[in-house]
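WARN  no MSA supplied for this record, continuing single-sequence
INFO  ligand: NDP
INFO  echoing inputs
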Amino acid sequence: MNTYIASVLDDLQDRYPHQPEFLQAAQEMLPSLEVVFERHPEYRDSALLERFVEPERAVLFRVPWVDDGGQVRVNRGYRVQFSSAIGPYKGGLRFHPSVTLGMLKFLALEQTLKNSLTGLPIGGAKGGADFNPRAKSDGEVMRFCQSFMTELVRHIGPRLDIPAGDIGVGAREIGFLFGQYKRLVARHEGAMTGKGMGYGGSQARTEATGYGLMYLVKTMLDNHSLSPEGMRAVISGSGNVAIYAAQKAAQMGVHVIAMSDSEGFILDGEGIDLSCIKNLKLTERARISEYPLRVGRGNFHPGANGIWQITCDLALPCATQNELDEAAATALIRNGVKAVAEGANMPATLAASRAFQDAGVLFMPGKAANAGGVAVSALEMAQNAGFTSWTFDKVDRELQAVMDRIYHRVAHTAARYGKAGDFILGANVAGFLQVADAMMAQGVV
Ligand code: NDP
Ligand code: 2IT
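INFO  complex generated
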């Protein structure tokens, strides 16, 4: 590795030893940029990489709230505003007990390059709290969201920073958060995306990440003389991304035979009954283990990671980071997987993604594959700013066009830098170049 990049990575390791996910994301990203720094010595002269790897701003705040028993609880809330080089800060909020500043720095760094890849004018951010919405009443979730927004409101706005959903933040949470935002600023404005259709949301935002993932997978397969039709797919997770990836996959003739949640996976050789999954996970907030009882077929297996032992053509990790390790990758390769595309952010470990590439398996990293969600968020911002709303078909067409452009941008960049087929390098370089050029144009800020 080039000594400049190695020294920036070493510095990060010394400074942030307690932020393993952030270091992992930097280790995946920075080596790809070697080819860029060889061609652009001026970047180094202006310490571009040292500036790029530090968030422009990160806020950390306490979130006090009262549970149904009258007890006062305290969580930690965050917003990491990583880069505003190409547009206002944009990225989701995650509510999960595992959330830390380091995790959100990794997600905000990924988001910065992802948002750049969409070709839309959005910078990168991420936020959230170590709050677990599971098993909380609607009233408790509402009070938590109101307290969280009472602080966050100082840091966001339609031209400043526009949060959205992520793990643990869906339609219910966005509604409560937006309601409190509106009450505090006394304006109905597009400071959040993923809003409900009746109050400023966009058609197709709910479906966008999963649908976009499958649009990009289809383009990738088409460009390698393959077709999704008739393929068997395994999709981890059963949340927003996984459900709509499964729905679009089924529409494309893919047989989705397995899905999961954090406790285990279901295998149904006849094809997953998605209406049952939607009822269980979205409406009832129940466990996926109930699926076999409800539909009268399929089996539940405890342990989420076992899903990667299933023989399939297409593997779509759509749950969380580091859910697919090297052993899982080896099993998938041995069982003949043809393509892997990340619906989640960094679900494959570094060793797993290298194993796929070494074995000649098509591998598309999350910052390209799951960019459809934030792309439609940007379209929601455009609709809000224009006081208008577009039809489902219009948004869906735009989404398909964005995903098609992303695939070609990633593939062409990899080829242009002498690494045809290396979509990790293609995505990192293509995403970085636009941010870097914007930073150079704006001086030392
Ligand atoms: P949801 O909260 O809707 O669903 C998350 C799913 O992943 C659930 O099935 C959950 O299981 C499972 N899961 C969560 N944590 C773990 C864990 N530690 N181990 C195993 N399984 C886990 O989130 P989303 O579908 O929105 O997000 C999924 C992934 O996609 C995340 O990586 C997110 O960052 C990424 N993403 C999301 C976008 C969006 O628009 N929502 C856009 C782009 C990427 P359980 O029900 O048991 O908790
Ligand atoms: O990881 C992601 O891209 C998201 N959670 C969506 C972000 C957004 O602003 O729509």
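The chain has 18 helices and twelve strands.
INFO  checksum written, moving to next record
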